[in-house]
Structure of NADH:ubiquinone reductase (non-electrogenic):
Amino acid sequence: MALARIARSGLRRSVGGNSNGSFSHEKGIFSEEGSTHKFSLLRHENAVAHGNQSYLHSIKTLNYMSILSRGIRTTPHQQFPNAARVLEESESEYEEPRYAGLEATKPGEKPRVVVIGTGWGACRFLKGLDTKIYDVVCISPRNHMVFTPLLASTCVGTLEFRSVAEPVSRIQSSLATDPNSYFYLASCIGIDTNKHEVYCETASNGGLPQEPHQFKVAYDKLVIAAGAEPLTFGIKGVSENAFFLREVNHAQEIRKKLLLNLMLSQNPGISEGEKKRLVHCVVIGGGPTGVEFSGELSDFIMRDVQEQYTQVKDYIKVTLIEANEILSSFDIGLRQYATKHLNKCGVSLMRGVVKEVHPKKIVLNDGTVVPYGLLVWSTGVGPSQFVKSLHLPKSPGGRIGVDEWLRVPSVEDVFAVGDCAGFLEQTGRPVLPALAQVAERQGKYLVGLFNKKIGKQSGGKALNMKDISLGDPFVYKHLGSMASVGRYKALVDLRQSKDAKGISLAGFLSWLIWRSAYLTRVLSWRNRFYVAVNWATTLVFGRDNSRIG
């Protein structure tokens, strides 16, 4: 026993982190599926910070588990319940937790690429990655990609939810068929760049023997595409009372709340004031998401509410609140067109800054009180708590800093794309906007880097990229912006930048271009068929107003 203890102590001393590690063990808040969860990667009684390294005292080791699940693999179940949690008191001050999971690849095995996230950047990378060269592991709290440009349409029944959700196993089939590729339904809670390991926690309460269920995955190459979180600017009451619009479950909750308020407002005994409040929909943020949602709501009111909720049709109202101008990145002529059109469709535009949010009202900085029944918050995105917790270089704004080849400097074999990544200041490049087309183009660029450069030069294994020529750096060219404003009208701005000259269109023709472009961008023929059928049935029969759940 004494020899074993000495051996373990020596091993732990030898694998202690160094100053470049990014293994985060601090407690924080991780937002998942619209709710907030506390996580603690390591349970400890005392930690003394020293640079980027912490010396942990009296750490209690965590659970063991098996990874032998198949199919579209979710977080594995434990094989030995009696060994679910091992409590080990150690005399060594360098004691650290041990996790079950995927160990490092062996010589002769394919390099393992771990992808964190299932957003635009991650899924474009997964779709194109050559699985003859690499094994791939995808880790995300959701098992699908959301086609965000059409998400607003699902809130009012124009489209069904399955039309905008693409299962990750259809995007990269090896996740369901390859014996060494896996999808894990989990959240990444820490990264140790020295050991080439990521640490994960199961995404939800699935009734596992030990919860929270935690495990590790070793990687040869790591692609962080963890996305971002909605910006609340620290305003009191936003997280508790407002709905965001970034996930399918957000759209589901908005739709349920909207229909519930419409039906409750028709009940006898409801005062005039309460009736007006219940059917008052307030949208905060005048970007493309806020404008498109407001347009969809106005369409829903003008056609469906007028026919099916005649008792309250004169009470329902949509208010869009923006601190500056709506659609600030669009051409000034298009902004003016959108303002006039939204006003014509019954959307009230209000300029103001929200001071605080209450369960039934919001208060602006000038003291104005705005009662509401439904509040949708769409004011942009910022770094998630997970990204903030990582000891990695940061770009302006707090995103993970990357160089011209989307690598994270100062650590080996780590790349970052999408809303969680931004160019470092020393690159001389601006931080790119948090747009789907930016993330998709970055994912496509990494596919070429991994398949044609790293893979063909045998650089896929860990710490094996020093002599690899990566070729041309990533260059982003903006293809333009589009936004629907309701009533078969849309805006198309094909300028490459805000100050550049280019084609700008508005009206019915733009609406046809908008629909055609997004229909072709939907990932699978199955979902394209769903979208086309939903559009046709909505045009002929109206929207589905049934409230389920």
Remarks:
- Residues 1-95 have pLDDT under 50 and may be disordered.
- The chain has 14 helices and 28 strands.
- The first strand starts at residue 28 and ends at 32.
